[in-house]
Amino acid sequence: MANLKVMLQGKSDCSCGRQHTCDIRFVEIGENVLQKLPDVCADFSRILLIADANTYPLCGEEAEALLKGKIAAKQIFGQEIVVPDEEAIAAIEAQMPTDTDLLLGIGSGVINDLCKHVSFTHGIRYAIIATAPSMDGYASVGAALILEQMKVTLNARVPYAILAESAIVRTAPLDMIRSGYGDIVGKYSCLNDWKLAHLLRGEYFCDFVFDSVMDSVKAVEDKAEALLARDPEAIRLLMEALVNVGIMMSYVGNSRPASGSEHHLSHYFEITGLLNGHGYYLHGIDVLYSAAVTARLREDLLLQNSPFPAYQENRDAWEKEIRRVYTSAADGIIALQDKVGLYADIDVKQLENAWQEVCRILREAPGYEKMLSFVTAIGLDINEFNAFYGKEILSDAVRYAKDLKDRYTVLWIAYALGVGYRE
User: Fold this and answer.
1) Rounded to whole angstroms, how far apart are CA atoms 405 and 416?
2) Model-level pTM greater than 0.85?
3) Cα within 13 Å of Cα(294), Cβ side
4) Which domains does the chain have, with CATH numbers?
5) What is the pLDDT of residues 214-247, one digit of tens each?
């Protein structure tokens, strides 16, 4: 896996024709990292500290002591689970002095996304003290939020600094470590989707970014046992992989190298869970399970033979189904797909003409049994996943999770050819 400090310098001679840059100033992962906080924050004097009831006790007081009076205000969320929605954003803004020059988050996914969004909308920088190796968004340009009951990823900017103290991230709950592992191993699915979108829709593609993300996957995929034992070297490798993937997202300006059909399924479980009051797994755990689902979907697609039946759109039936599964969020889903027009672009004849190449790409991704081995290695059970959501939710997810986003993935091919969920 590439050196992160080298990656922060960008790449100006990429074969894809684009100049890749990353505006992160500091990435520090290892022992005694918190002691570098005064140097990292040397140029700032009015800092808003943001944490929650779980993360502040880990190092909040130490961070305040190290910064010697630079903390101008604090927003410490009291609830156990913080949702990155309008209410949470408003709570941060209510505590933010007008002369704030840095947001300093202590946390992982939700805290990072809230800091990313608020800092971007107010034109100031933010830094994050990572508390878990649980997701790849630390270094990304997008902020994953739930606004108007919709899972959205808004453009933002990368953090000024990422600090990951080994003594802290190693003690994260095992499910958060599993989540980070799942978020990385799930890249097998999204990278395959990226190639399909490049072939079938002419999407921009970068071999360098693709290979760098794949290197991160390879560095971590066989470390499940060591991660469960909280081995320091394995945790470091996972944290570096997660940050590297975030840097690659900043290289291309969006989450395409890190998020595809497996993430859309994960977002579906989260959104419909919030809407309908049923539970869902941590993001990366859902991603890993969902990557197994998409692996089986790819295998089933490889069994299809052209010529395929012509796709026939039934707008009324589709809209009825969207309202059934997305309930109060359906209007936003319908408006998004009307704007993007992916349904209008379904072209079975194009799939037939490109089918041999489509199949070649599909075969590049690990099969279902291989993905299942990653699930098992990290201490998860696909049978629990299947029972937790049930066949109806899983079938709906495979069919309608694609509607949450404007991104082409294997889910669109499966929909066009009538291939659905199978246990």
Assistant:
1) 17
2) yes
3) 34
4) 4-172 (3.40.50.1970), 261-417 (no CATH)
5) 999 999 999 999 999 999 999 999 999 999 999 9
